[in-house]
Amino acid sequence: MTYIEKPRVHHPALEKNELGLTRRDYEGRMSTLCAGCGHDSVTAAIIETFWKLSVPPHRVAKLSGIGCSAKTPTYFIQEAHGFNAVHGRMPSIVTGGNAANRDLVYIGISGDGDSLSIGLGQLCHAIRRNVDMLYVLENNGVYGLTKGQFSASADVGSRSKTGEVNRQRPIDPVLLALSLGASFVARSFSGDKAQLVPILEAGLRHRGLALVDVISPCVTFNDHEGSTKSYRYTREHEVVAVEADFVPLRREITAEYGPGDVREVPMHDGSVVRFRKVPAHYDPTDRDAAYAYVRERQEAGEVPTGLLHIDPTGQEMHEVLGTVETPLVDLPYEALCPGREKLSEIMAAFR
Amino acid sequence: MSPAGRVPTSRAPEPSAGTEPGAEGEGRDARINDLALKIATVNGTGSASANGLLMQAIFRMGIPVTGKNVFPSNIQGLPTWYEIRVSGEGWTARSPEYDLIVAMNPATYARDIDEVQTGGWVLHDSSWPLARELRREDVTFLGVPLARMGSEHFHGSRTRILMKNVGYVGALSALLQVDRDVVRSLLEERFGEKKRALLDANFEAFDLGFEFAREHFDCPLPIRLSPMDATRDSVLIDGNTAAAIGCLYAGATVASWYPITPSTSLVQAFEAFANRYRKDPDTGKLRVAVIQAEDELAAAGMAIGAGWMGARSFTSTSGAGISLMSEFIGLAYYTEIPVVLFDIQRVGPSTGMPTRTQQGDILMVAYASHGDTKHIALFPADPKECFELAVAAFDLAERFQTPVFVVSDLDIGMNDWVVPRFEWDDDYRPDRGKVLTAEELEAGAVFHRYEDVDGDGIPWRTLPGVHPRGAFFTRGSGHDRYARYTEDAGPYTDVVDRLTRKHATAAAHVPAPVIARMPGATMGLLTIGGCDAACREAVHGLAERGVPLDYMRVRAFPFGEEVEAFLLEHPTTFIVEQNRDAQLHHLLLAETAVTKDRLASVRRYGGLPLSAVHVVEDVLGLLGEGGGNGDGAAASGGTVGAAAGARGGNGARAEGGRGSPGRSGSDGGSQGRGAGAPRNAAGPEGGDA
Question: Is pLDDT larger for residue A262 or for residue B233?
Fold first, then answer.
C-alpha cells in the first residue's frame, strides 16, 4: 500500500462555509510525512484557508514539484485537480495552466530544495511574470527524502544531523522576492496557524503571485540543536513583526485597532489587508523599506514574519499578455480558426 | 574598362533537358531555366534582401526556383552565401554545380571562384582589380564596378552597401534575362509610395547594374531564364512560417518558447499571425497566449501545463532545446498530456553548427527522456507539409494524449520554398480525443484516468475545473490505472504496458508514408523529411542510368505497416538521411522486422541541404563503380555495407560487406576543378560551403 485513503465520514454538526461544505470537504488523503512534520501544519492552514474563503474545491488547481513539500497537495482538497511536476519546475506548469485557464485558483506548494536550487530560475520568472497564484514555499533548510543534506536555504553555521556544519551563505526567498519586485511577499511559521491563515487568505485573493515562505521544521533531519530551522530555534527567534489581517470582500470589518496602529491595503477585488502591529515607519507597500527591515532584523538574529510586502498595483501575467477575459480553454474553435478565405489572404502575401 | 569586363567565352554545349538552340545568341546552345548560381556576400550587409528579391522575381516569372541561404552564426561580418537553383523541370533540391558565382566577399574569393563549374561565370566587383592568382582560364569573369557605381550615385556608407547588392541583382537580371518589370513591381510592393526615396534608389541601383551588364557583356548568357507558367498555384514560403499558420488554424492557444536558431521564426510568425487573426474585435484582446520562457525547460513546462488544462499548446525549439526538455517530455508521456513540440533540427552534437542543417535528432525524438518512453513524431518534407502536419500533430496529440513532435530542419524551416498554395477545409474540427464532459461526469460516467476502457490503449481524461467527479492527481511518479501513487510492480506495469499498446495504436493513425513505384525496380530507396526533394530527383536520375528504385518517404514514427512491408519487399533498400550515425536506419532496424542485410546506408551530414548529385553518387558507389547493373547492391559479399567515400575517384569502398552502415563524406559543394585528393571515407572535410 503506497497511499492511505481517508474515510469520508462527516459529523453532521461540523461547521459549514458559504458553499455548505465542511472543513472535511477540503481535506485530502492521509499524510505519509513524518509525524510532527511542519508541512502537515501548513496543510492544515491551507485547508482552513480554502474552507474559510469558500473556494469550490474542483475549481482549485494544486501543484507541486518534487520532494517532501511536493507530497502535501495530496493531503488537501481531494476534489481539486493535482499535479506533481518535475523537480523545481512547478512554476512553469502553473504558468502554462494559468495561461490556458485563468479562472481556476492556483496553489503551488514547493520547498527550499525544490525552489531554491534547480527551481530558482522558474521561481524568479514566475515572480517576474506575476503569475496569479499562491506560492507556498515550505522551508526547512534540508533535503528530507534523500536523508538530510543541506539545502540552499540552510543558514551559515547550521549543523546537520551527522554533525556537518554549513559554511555557505543561504538563499533567502523573501529577500530574493523583494529584490525581484514580487507583488506579495510573506513569511510565516508552520507552528503559527493564527498568523499563517490570514496570510494565506490574503495571498489567495491577491491578483498576481503571492509568495509565502513558511519556516516548516523537519522533525527528522533538521529539528535538533544547531539547526536554525528547528521548532525551538524558530520559536525563540521568530518576531511576529508585521501582523496582518485579511478582510474578505463583503464581510464586516470587525478588527478593533486604533487607527494609528493600522494600515489598510485594498486588494483588486475590494477586499482589504489590514496591517496591525506595524513597526514605526514601516510601509508594507514600500519594498525598499521592507527589504531594509528584514535585513535589519536578520542582523539582530531574528526571523521577522508576517505579510512583509504587498504591491496591489502590479499587473498579473494576463494583463501584460493582453489575453481575453474568457479562459482560452473555453473559446470555441470557431473563434480561433481564421477560416478558408483568410488563408487565401495569407497565401497572397507569399507570392 | 576593367580587364574582366570582356565578352564571355562560349560555354561548351551541354545536353540537358532544358537545352534549346540559342534563340538569340550567336548560334550557341542556350540552357533555359536550368541553372545554379551562388552569391557570396558578407553577413549583415543587406544582401539577404537583394537575394530574396532575385529569387522572388524568378518565382513571379512562373519558373520553379529554389533558394538556400547558407549563413553564419553571426550578426555582422562573417561570410554568407545564397544559392539559387532554377529548374524548369521542377526539381527543388539544392544543386552544388554552380554555373555562376557572384563573388562579393573578398574574404572568400578564392574558395568561391574555385567552386564554379568549368565553362561557368564569375560576377565580381571590378572597382578594384582581382588578384591574378584568383583568375581561372576555364571560366569567364564578369567585372561590374559595383562599389564605384555606388559611391558615384548614392550617399552614406549604409546606402552604398545596400545599393551594391541591388546592383548585382540588376546585372544578373540582364545576364540571365530576369524580367525587369517583375523586379520593378516587386520593389514597388516592397517599398510602396511611403518609402519613395528608397524605392527610387533601388530602381536606380538595379538599372545601373542592369545597364552596365547590357553594355559590357554579351547578354543574355547561354544560361538564361524564360517565363513559364509553373508557379501560378504556388507560394514562396519557409517551413517555420508554414508551421505557424498550421498552429493558427489548428486552434493552438498557448505557445511557449525560448529563442534558438533555427526555430525562432516559427513562434515569431505565429505571434504575428495571432496578433492579426486572434484579436477579439470588441476588446482588442488576444485569444492566444504567447510566452517567451526563461529557457527550454520552462517552455516545455508551460506547454504541458496548458495541455493539461485542455488548451492546444506547443513549443518550438531545436535539438539542443529537446535535450533540455527531455525530462518534461517524459513527464508528459507518462502523465499522458497532449503537447506539440516542433524540433527544427540543426547540426549537433552540442552547440554544433547552429546555422547548418542536419537530421540528427531522429533517434532522440523517438525515445526522448529517461526510462521507457516512445513518442509520436511527424517528419514534414517541405513547408506545405509543415502546415499540414502541424495541424495533424495537434489532432494526434489530443487523440493519443501524448507529446507529438514535428521534426523539421533548418533547410525546410528557414529557406523559402516554392510549394503549392495551402488549402483549408472549413469543415475541419479539432479531434479533442477522449475527454469526458461535465454533463457526462454529472450523469455518473465512470472515470478512472488511466484505464483502458476501449481496448486501444487510450484512456479517457478530464480537464481541471470541469466537474468535482473529474478530479484526479496528475503525477510523474509511479501510478496505477486509477491515477493513485504506487510503488507496486503490478499496477505500475499495467500502466506502462498500456502505454506501449497506445503507441502501437498510433501507427495506424499517423500520416502514411509516400510511395512512388518505379517500373522494373527490385531495390528500394527510403528516406525522411527534407531529403525528399534530392531523393526524388536522384531516383529519377538513377532510373535514367539504369538503376530503377522504388521510393518511400516515411512521414511518421511509429512506422506503419507499409513501411515494414516496403523494407521486406525489397532485398535491398537504400536508407538516405542526413546524420553520421544512420539514425533512421537504426530506428527501422529496431522498430520493424527488417534485417540488417537488407539495408544500405547513404548519409550526408556536413550541414548543407542534400543534393541529388550526392545521392546518385553514393548509391552508384554502393552498387559498384558506374552502377547500372540493376541487380544490386548485394555486390559486395551479399551486403551493401558502405557508401564509399569514393568520389575522389579511387573507387575504394570502405568496409564493404561488413553489414554495418556505410560511411559517407561531406555534402560539400562541387569539387570544382581538380579538387584534389580522394575524400576520406570517414566523413566530412573541406569544401563544405
Answer: B233
Query: By CA distance, what is A98's nearest residue in B?
Result: B306
Cβ–Cβ below 8 Å for B485 and A325: no
pLDDT at A327 over 90: yes
Distance CA B620, CA B598 (A): 17
**In a domain? residue B532:** yes
pLDDT for B21: 39
Contact A121 B298 (CB under 8 A): yes
Give me the phi and psi of A241, to 5 degrees please.
Answer: -85, -35
**The domain boundary residue, chosen from B232, B263, B297:** B232
Question: Residue B261's closest CA among B184, B317, B338, B335?
Answer: B317
Q: Decide which of A257 and B641 is more confident.
A: A257
Same-domain status, B500 and B592: no
Both B84 and B174 in one domain: the answer is yes
Listed residue (B399, B136, B291, B466) closest to A94, CA to CA: B291
ipTM: 0.95
- Look up the pTM and report it: 0.91
Partners of residue B432 in chain A, C-beta under 8 Å: none
Are residues A2 and B487, on separate chains, in Cβ contact within 8 Å? Answer: yes
Average pLDDT over residues B513-534: 98
Claim to verify: residue B184 and residue B240 sit in the same structural domain? no
Per-residue pLDDT band at B165 (split at 50, 70, 90): very high
Judge whether B684 lies within some domain: no
Cα–Cα distance for residue pair B178/B280, rounded to 1 Å: 44
Give the CATH number, domain containing residue B118: 3.40.920.10
User: Are residues B214 and B175 located together in one domain of the fold?
Assistant: yes
Domains along chain A with CATH numbers:
23-322 (3.40.50.970)
Cβ-count burial of A117 within 10 angstroms (0-12 exposed, 13-18 middle, 19+ buried)? middle
pLDDT at residue A248, rounded to an integer? 74
Residue of B60, B236, B310 lying closest to A329 (CB–CB): B310
d(CA B235, CA B246): 15
**B546 and B500 within one domain:** no
Q: Which of B232, B260, B295 is the last residue of a domain?
A: B232
Q: Are residues B225 and B327 located together in one domain of the fold?
A: no
pLDDT for A261 equals: 60
Closest residue on chain B to A64 (Cα) = B475
B330 to chain A: closest CA residue:
A86
How does pLDDT run across B400-458, given as a tens digit for each residue? 999 999 999 999 999 999 999 999 999 999 999 999 999 999 999 899 999 999 999 99
Residues of B in contact with A333 (CB under 8 A): 251, 429-430
**Residue A73 to chain B, least CA–CA distance (Å):** 9
- Record the cell numbers describing residue A132, joined without a space: 496569479
Which residue in B254, B295, B302 is closest to A328 by CB distance? B254
B367 contacts B373 by C-beta, under 8 angstroms: yes
pLDDT tier for residue B645 given thresholds of 50, 70 and 90: very low
Distance from CA of B165 to the nearest CA of A (A): 22
pLDDT band at B669 (very low <50, low <70, confident <90, very high): very low
Query: Which has more pLDDT, A244 or B511?
Result: B511
Strands (E), B186-241: 223-224, 234-238
Mark whether B521 and B618 lie in a shared domain: yes
User: pLDDT above 90 covers what percent of chain B?
Assistant: 83
Q: Which domain holds residue B116?
A: 19-232
Judged by CB atoms closer than 8 Å, whether chains meet at B298 and A122 is answered as yes
Give the integer Cα–Cα distance in Å for A269 and A271: 6
Q: Is residue B124 part of a domain?
A: yes
B50 and B107 fall within a common domain: yes
Inter-chain contact B302–A95, Cβ cutoff 8 Å? yes
Spatial distance between the Cα atoms of A293 and A272, rounded to a whole number of angstroms: 23
